[in-house]
Amino acid sequence: MKIPGCTKGSHTDEAPKVEPQAPKPSPNVNLTMTSDQGATETYSSLSRTTGAATPTIASSAPAEPIPPAAEEEDDPSVPVTPGTICRRKGCGKSFVSDEVSRGDGEESVCTYHPLPPIFHEGSKGYLCCKRRVLEFDEFLKIGGCKQGRHLFAPKEKEAKTEEFIDCRVDHYQTPAEVHVSVFAKQTDKDRSVVQIETDKIHLDLYFQGTKRFRRSIDLFGPVNPEASSFKYFGTKVVVFTFQRFMNNTQRILI
């Protein structure tokens, strides 16, 4: 603190500004040494510059909110029997009349849970609520979190367009046998149709949802449709046909 200054100037209350200096690379230094035997060794020092890496922050666009699931709506044109319970979860009110349960009064307001229940490690609740309970009786008492209209007779949904799919088919025939295998799982036997003709088999198979498979298979030998039969299994449809061909009984596996 006692070292006197070395420069003269005017007094000021501002701190002097010091420009930051860029790091200077160290110069290349080549050292050459000669030994007593006349051998020469050269050492080189390469310049290195060091600099701090500038961190970058990746900014991502905010995620789009998940659209809410479409809820079923009540169809006022469908008559409802008095005493019918509202189908919405957590409501539990019974239908009285169109004026009371479907009008504009307090009894027409439905307080329900729009999302399904959840059971996890003993706790019970709804996906739309934060409350969780342990006892099942307490779970039944959890009040709804959303208000809307009662649901006594849901509106019929519009029929979706059928989706025709392609199933794997294995088909081969010999002079004595015919084998056709169609790999189809979970066939709806109430709607599916198998029609056997003399020289063809028509398949019209329905599956869950709107999926459907249609195929006509040509046979290389006449069969007896009246003596033929078929049966549905979980993974395939088996059709038994009897063919007048070299006096042999034929089986067609589908």
What's a quick, concise take on this entry?
The protein is built from two helices and 16 strands.
Task: For the structure shown, list the relevant keywords.
254 residues; mainly beta; btk motif of tyrosine-protein kinase itk; Immunoglobulin-like; 3-stranded antiparallel sheet; 4% helix; flat; repeat; Cysteine and histidine-rich domain-containing protein 1; CS_dom
SSE layout:
Blueprint (H helix, E strand, L loop, with lengths): L28 E6 L5 E6 L52 H4 L7 E4 L4 E4 L2 E4 L5 E2 L2 H5 L5 E4 L13 E2 L4 E5 L4 E5 L10 E4 L3 E7 L4 E8 L4 E10 L4 E7 L8 E2 L1
Parallel strand pairs: 8-13
Antiparallel strand pairs: 1-2, 3-7, 4-5, 5-6, 9-10, 11-12, 12-13, 14-15, 15-16
Provide a count of the helices.
Answer: 2
Distance from first to last alpha carbon? 104 Å
Characterize the quaternary organization of these chains: single chain
Structural class: mainly beta
What would you say the CATH architecture of the domain at 163-253 is? Sandwich
Q: What top-tier CATH class of the domain at 163-253 fits best?
A: Mainly Beta
**Shape from CA axes?**
flat
Mean pLDDT: 76
DSSP, total strands: 16
Give a short account of the largest sheet. 4 strands, mixed
Helix content: under 10%
Strand order of the largest sheet: 8-13-12-11
Order of helices and strands: EEHEEEEHEEEEEEEEEE
Q: Quote the beta fraction.
A: 25-35%
Q: Spans with pLDDT under 50 lasting ≥5 residues?
A: 49-61, 246-254
What is CATH's topology name of the domain at 163-253? Immunoglobulin-like
Radius of gyration: 42 Å
